[in-house]
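Honest question from a wet-lab person: if I give you the sequences of every part of a complex, can you actually get the arrangement of the whole thing, not just the pieces? Trying it with mine:
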Amino acid sequence: MIMCRRATELMSQRLDRPLAWPERLSLRFHLAMCGACSQCNRQFDLLHEAGKRFEPAAQVQEQERE
Amino acid sequence: MSIPPLDDRMQRLTAVRPRLLSFARLHLRHHAQAEDAVQDTLEAAIEKQDSFSGRSGYETWVFGILKYKILDTMRAQKRQGTWQPLEDEGEADDDAIDRLFQQNGRWLKEARPVSWGEPEAAFENELFWQVFDACMIALPDNVARAFSLRELMGLSTEEICRELGIKENNCWVILHRARLRLRACIEQGWLTEEAS
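Yes, you can. This is the full assembly:
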């Protein structure tokens, strides 16, 4: 069982490297039970997305790639 | 997409300049150096207009030039030894993270994240960006540098390690701290303002 502090490490690293499956599993398990960490996870995602919005045309580029 | 005519290009460069400047400022954290990087970028964009292929948008192309200029300036900063060693802030920063959690690793009650609402609504809110900017500036230099290279410039942690001269493991630790600090700062600044 991981605690919130460790969970935030994993949700951060998830944005920088692929997690190993035991890490993914324990993160998913923790998020399912912890409302505060689920919010934190959404906010990390939002910050990740916010960085991309800085460039005016970045979104267009992303869409083109898809 | 063809190359826009000169008048149009000048107009577009003028229009994109403030965004270039705030982008450069977040990376370089030095107003004069950010101004220089943007000025160099605008000059290069005019001089090297023939190398604009039209495959990407014009503004994207200009941002691409700025990214090179920013990395050049950062490398120069690093060479000149104006960067504080990462370890110096490492420990102080650990304290900042310690203040968010209890001994057992759970969130402290007052540090527990709350909802920010829909991401799209945040992105369309001018206030969100003002708070984001202020919170980036409030980060320690080293932490902000890693975060901006990762999330604004889109470099991989491997590339960031090369630029900053740190181990990848250290990079993940710094990015984790950056995200925790930013989210706490934004939550405080943004939601307080929204409520008032």
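Two things worth pointing out. Residues 135 and 185 of chain B are 6 Å apart (CA to CA). Chain B has a mean pLDDT of 87.
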